[in-house]
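User: quick one, sequence for these C-alpha cells?
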C-alpha cells in the first residue's frame, strides 16, 4: 500500500471511528437509557462531553497530571454528574471502574507504545469490561502513514515490530521511544486473537487504522 504523506497522522477531532461510536451510543440510549462509556486516554475531554450530551454516563481515564485540566473542562461543561475522571492507563486500570461493565469502550491512542503481545493482552482485558454485546472502538497509528518513513520496523513481522521512528518523524510529531505501527490486517488479527468478534476495520485517509469489535 502506498504511504500517505499528505495529511497529519495525529490529526484530532471527531473522526469516522468516533462518529460510529457516537451513533451507537445514541441508538442504545434511545432503547436502554442507561448507556455507560469508557474513554482512554481522556484527551481534551471533547469526546466525553459529546457522549454525555447524548445522555450517557462516561468514565474517562488519564494520568494524574491531567486531572485538573480535564476536571476543569468537565465542570465548565456542566457535566460533573455525567462524567467521572479516573487516574490510570491502558496497562494500569483500577480493578473496578465507575459504570462497569460498559456498553462502549473507546481507545483513542496508546497501544502503539507497547509490543504486539502486550497490546493483545490489554485488548483482551478490556473486552472483559464490556457487557455482552458491548462494542470496542480502537484507533492506532498506521504502518502506511507518514510515520513509517525510514521506520526501522517496517519490514519486521508484527510480533517483532517495535522500533523508534526516524529522527525526522520524532522531531515532527514528538513521538519518542519505540512504537509498533499497524496495518489494517494487523489490527484485525489483534482483535481476533484478543477474543473479540470483529465488526469492521478501516484505514483513514492519512494512513492510520481503526477497528470496531463486539464482545460475544
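Assistant:
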Amino acid at each position: 500500500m502506498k504511504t500517505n504523506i499528505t495529511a497529519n497522522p495525529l490529526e484530532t477531532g471527531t473522526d469516522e471511528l468516533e462518529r460510529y461510536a457516537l451513533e451507537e451510543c445514541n441508538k442504545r440510549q434511545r432503547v436502554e437509557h442507561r448507556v455507560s462509556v469508557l474513554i482512554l486516554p481522556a484527551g481534551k475531554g471533547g469526546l466525553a462531553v459529546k457522549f454525555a450530551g447524548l445522555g450517557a454516563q462516561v468514565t474517562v481515564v488519564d494520568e494524574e497530571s491531567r486531572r485538573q485540566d480535564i476536571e476543569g473542562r468537565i465542570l465548565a461543561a456542566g457535566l460533573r454528574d455525567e462524567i467521572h475522571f479516573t487516574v490510570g492507563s491502558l496497562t494500569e486500570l483500577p480493578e473496578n471502574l465507575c459504570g462497569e461493565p460498559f456498553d462502549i469502550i473507546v481507545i483513542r491512542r496508546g497501544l502503539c507504545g507497547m509490543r504486539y503481545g502486550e497490546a493483545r493482552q490489554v485488548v483482551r482485558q478490556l473486552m472483559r469490561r464490556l457487557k455482552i454485546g458491548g462494542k470496542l472502538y480502537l484507533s492506532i497509528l498506521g504502518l502506511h502513514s507518514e510515520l513509517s518513513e525510514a521506520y526501522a520496523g517496517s519490514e519486521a513481522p508484527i510480533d517483532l515490530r517495535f522500533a523508534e521512528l526516524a529522527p525526522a518523524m520524532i522531531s515532527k510529531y514528538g513521538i519518542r521511544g519505540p512504537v509498533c505501527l499497524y496495518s489494517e490486517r494487523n489490527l484485525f488479527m489483534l482483535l481476533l486473537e484478543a477474543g473479540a468478534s470483529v465488526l469492521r476495520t478501516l484505514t483513514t485517509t492519512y494512513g492510520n487504522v481503526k477497528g470496531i469489535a463486539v464482545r460475544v
